[in-house]
Design brief:
Helix 12 links the parallel strand 12 and strand 13. The protein is of the alpha+beta class and about 425 residues long. It folds into 2 domains: about 240 residues, 2-Layer Sandwich (BirA Bifunctional Protein, domain 2); about 90 residues, Rossmann fold. It has an 8-stranded mixed beta sheet with strand order 1-5-6-11-10-9-7-8, sandwiched between helices. The protein is built from 15 helices and 16 strands. The chain is about 40% helix and about 20% strand. Bound molecules: histidyl-adenosine monophosphate (HAM). Histidyl-adenosine monophosphate (HAM) binds next to strand 6, strand 10, strand 11 and helix 11.
Length: about 425
């Protein structure tokens, strides 16, 4: 048997139902905040990610599904959604449409990471990007929308951690200070950090091995007065929106495009892969990719991880309301037509195999969880009626004219609170 690839998984019922519920909650929340959907390609030019996600990031260095296609083009499966949205924004001149620059996406991403609980090679992100607003209110709105989404989806017990990386000037100054410190500590650093301190010293703060001790010992970042003012205004607005958060000056995030505010949402219930969401400002990315000067902020939640947090919630009842049974050889067509009429009237209906015995079809109706079995046998066929048998409530079987069955069932289902 050919099996799925490691790190690639099937999302089946009831988990797929949970995915759909979270997506529906997200779409509702996005509507409240004026975000519209952007459906962007899964495959892009590899260069897009090298230039935006960043060539010193783990994602680009070792996790991309990149290959040369049949036409000799260097392409990559998207490891994240932000670069594609930014490319689409620039390519389609979306900055000139007079619209609000708010986009959301729901889609699968690909990273060749080592698979473990909550970490897959194909996973789904729900992301939001707000392009064109430099104000702290955009930061506060973006983060509070994220918190609203988690609440709406029923994910509790998460903590919001925020930081500011400052503007290009702040980062340049801090980079020098940090680099000096890291050079002096090179002996204590893990191999990968030692390899990249010259290219990207900030990444050491994000390292699983060295991050914890560096958070204690490394010099702290400082912000210029503008960045300081932006960060405190963001916090004030978050407070006003009732968002609980914690500031952690060691939070740097693992992607290269961030400037200013960065944030993560974590849940202790997830174990080692505790990040439910990551995001931040990327004020220089649109311009550096060839677009207009358009400051931006966004985030992405991992849908697989959100679903893990909700997996113990009772699955919604997806049982059909009715189950139709043909109890005579010639009754199949009429029973099939009845099922069609029920569905047309908005009543869910299912069946098994009309060729099987009444007993076997009754057994299937019991297993289906339906509230009513609708049976057409020889007598009903002759009389143009349908026998209705309650499966979840006490009550005798009775017959109604076939044409009246949908209306009668609606009445019964309403009376029984939809059972
Ligand atoms: P990220 O932190 O790389 O940010 O990913 C965001 C979220 O995607 C993570 O918090 C996690 O829940 C989920 N995720 C990431 N990798 C995996 C994986 N291998 N398996 C399962 N879930 C995973 C970004 O991708 C940025 N584009 C976010 C952003 C949008 N920043 C600004 N705008």
């Amino acid at each position: 048997m050919t099996t799925s690839l490691r790190g690639f998984r099937d999302i089946l019922p009831p988990e797929s139902e949970l995915f759909a519920q979270i997506e529906a909650a997200a779409r509702e929340v996005f509507g409240l905040y004026g975000y519209q959907e952007a459906r962007i390609p899964t495959l892009e030019q590899k260069e897009l990610f090298v230039k935006s996600t960043g060539d010193t990031t783990d994602i680009v260095e070792k996790e991309m599904y990149a290959f040369t296609d049949g036409g000799g083009r260097e392409v990559a499966m998207r490891p994240e959604g932000t670069p594609g949205v930014v490319r689409a924004y620039i390519q389609n001149n979306l900055g000139q449409t007079g619209r609000n620059g708010k986009f959301f996406y729901i889609g699968n991403m690909f990273r060749a990471e080592r698979p473990q609980a909550g970490r897959y090679r194909e996973f789904t992100q729900i992301g939001a990007e707000y392009i064109g607003n430099p104000a702290p209110a955009a930061d506060a709105e973006s983060i509070s929308m994220l918190v609203r989404l988690l609440e709406k989806a029923g994910v509790g017990g998460c903590s919001v951690v925020i930081n500011s990386l400052g503007c290009a000037e702040c980062r340049k100054a801090y980079r020098e200070v940090l680099l000096g410190f890291l050079r002096g500590q090179a002996g204590k650093l893990c191999e990968p950090c030692r390899g990249r301190i010259e290219r990207n010293p900030l990444r050491a703060l994000d390292c699983k091995t060295d991050g914890p001790w560096l958070a204690q010992e490394a010099p702290k970042r400082t912000l210029c007065p503008n960045c300081e003012a932006h960060f405190s205004a963001t916090q004030r607005l978050l407070g006003a929106a009732g968002v609980a958060y914690e500031v952690n000056t060691s939070l740097v995030r693992g992607l290269d495009y961030y400037t200013g505010t960065v944030f993560e949402v974590r849940s202790g219930a997830l174990g080692s892969q505790d990040a439910v969401c990551g995001g931040g400002r990327y004020d220089d990315l649109v311009r550096s990719m060839g677009g207009p000067a358009a400051p931006a902020i966004g985030w992405a939640v991992g849908l697989d991880r959100m679903a893990m947090l909700l997996k113990d919630r009772p699955a919604p009842d997806k049982a059909p309301k009715t189950f139709v049974i043909a109890a005579a050889k010639e009754a199949g067509d009429r029973t099939f037509a009845l099922m069609t009429a029920l569905r047309a009237a908005g009543i869910s209906s299912d069946f098994s195999n009309f060729e099987l015995s009444l007993k076997s079809q009754m057994r299937s109706s019991g297993k289906s969880g339906a509230a009513f079995a609708l049976i057409i046998g020889e007598d009903e066929l002759k009389a143009g009626t349908v026998a209705i048998k309650p499966l979840k409530q006490q009550g005798e079987q009775f017959t109604v004219p076939a044409a009246d069955a949908p209306a009668k069932l609606k009445e019964l289902l309403n009376a029984g609170n939809n059972l």
